[in-house]
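Let us practice reading a record.
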Amino acid sequence: MSTGVQQVADGTYLVHGSNTNWVILTEGSAATLVDTGYPGDREQVLASLAEVGSSPEAVTAVLITHAHNDHLGSAEYLRSTYGTPVYLHEAEVPHARREFLHQVSVGTVLKNGWRPGVLPWAVHAIRVGGTAHVPVAYPQPFPAEGTLDLPGRPVPVYTPGHTDGHCAFHLPERGVVISGDGLVSGHPTSRIKGPQLLPDMFHHERARAVASLDVFAELEGEVLLPGHGPVHRGPVREAALQARDRAL
């Protein structure tokens, strides 16, 4: 099985799962795992940790950009099996507990089924657990303001719109921005490549998602690691402004 692991900077790995990405940040064998793919990606998540010299036992924390199933998939498994804390923005914590669900509905997907790529994407998403019930029993808000004392020294950056509590992670020391679904570089349902917002049907509040691109434009970095699509190299500011221009 291909683990889809791509090293993009020292101790920084983008992993391409099934139509979604996660990121591993390492310091020695210790790791921070940012997002966890679909429920059906679990074997690949575990294999990718092994490939970078880590293990689920060595994951210091799981950080979640937002609590959609294609990012939350194995978070509760890691928490319940290994005691790994799962951290999100405080506005996203109840979403991770599934007190509510801000996720594109099957009905909306079907209404958009005429668009290129939508039905194949939907069939795949269902197969890998896109509609499964995978709440995190005890999700936690970030333990501190600013830089987190975790491998990679990530800094949470609040970028709402895709969901109420969507959060990116800035790695100033590594020149990297992990953008989740607030800024992507491709998607099976998109006709364009390069920096962009996801198609409209995926956002809880599209206007806030567009506004959050201005937040991304303030972040220093030359490597963008999106929740969907390939790594994007070049100033993150330019990528955010390009996505905003395409969205307006």
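A brief commentary: The radius of gyration is 16 Å.
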